[in-house]
Amino acid sequence: MINLDFGAVLQGQYLDWLIGGAFTSLGLFATSWICAFALAVIIVALRALDFAPLEWVIAAYVNYHRNVPGLVQIFVWYFGVPELLPSSITGFINEHNGEFIFALIALFLNAAAYMSEDLRSGLRSVATTQMEAARALGLSYVQTMRDVLLPQAIRVSVAPLVNQSLSLFKSTSLAMAIGVAEMTYSSRQIENETYRTFETFAIASIFYLVMSWTIMAVGAYYNRHLQVKER
């Protein structure tokens, strides 16, 4: 006989853990997304300079993050990088939620590599004559990228960027491996104490589903908004 009791995990400290885990997941996603998008825009602008040594460095960065599992990248940052840093810096990071900080760095660097490739594809779809026309009008390289080319590249790249956002959101669950108390970590902790495995992970699944649908809905709204502006 099925004996489900969702009330057992939706009360007291377990409810607090779930709410705290949800906020941590959303905070980790939002911060990572903002950092990743900003870095991706910078990477695309630098690659457009067509300077060979810079291109090699960026290509190595992108290849590393696209071919090494995300969990390994988190371990590198959490376990490996602190050994290379001065003890004063490591101590400072550890005193300020080091698990969250290292997970954030690993996640946004990974997402930036993918986003930069999507934006780069979008930039390639923009006519090269627009760069020449903007420069002929007296715009600097930065102004040309910021005001003319990148807005068009972003508009073309909305669909793949939404996919990368979804991937980034789901990847926040990897942070549990280094002790970040996000939703998956909190769910595992509740399951260990209550033995309500189905109820606990059903709630976590609903959270991830709802947030994923929300990200897709925001992406679809933004895409429609852009189409209306183009008319």
Description:
The protein is an all-alpha fold and 231 residues long. It has one domain (7-224): MetI-like (MetI-like fold, Orthogonal Bundle), CATH 1.10.3720.10. The chain is built from 10 helices and no strands. The chain starts with 11 loop residues before the first helix and ends with a helix.
Comma- or semicolon-separated keywords:
single chain; 231 residues; MetI-like fold; 10 helices; AA_ABC_transptr_permease_3TM; transmembrane transporter activity
Task: Give the helix/strand layout.
Layout: H1 12-47, H2 52-67, H3 70-84, H4 87-95, H5 98-124, H6 129-136, H7 141-156, H8 158-171, H9 183-194, H10 197-230
Pfam families: BPD_transp_1
Domain ABC transmembrane type-1: 22-219
Membrane topology: Multi-pass membrane protein
Q: List how many beta strands DSSP finds.
A: 0
Q: Which architecture name does CATH use?
A: Orthogonal Bundle
Low-confidence stretches: none
End-to-end CA span:
59 Å
Q: Can you write the helix and strand succession as a string?
A: HHHHHHHHHH
CATH level 1 name = Mainly Alpha
Can you summarize the main beta sheet?
none
CATH superfamily: MetI-like
Compute the number of helices.
10
Q: How many structural units, i.e. domains?
A: 1
Helix content: over 70%
Oligomer: single chain
Could you say which overall geometry the principal axes of the C-alpha atoms support?
A: globular
DSSP strand (E) fraction?
under 5%
Return the CATH topology.
Answer: MetI-like fold
Structural class: mainly alpha
Using only C-alpha atoms, the radius of gyration works out to: 21 Å
Overall residue-averaged pLDDT value: 92
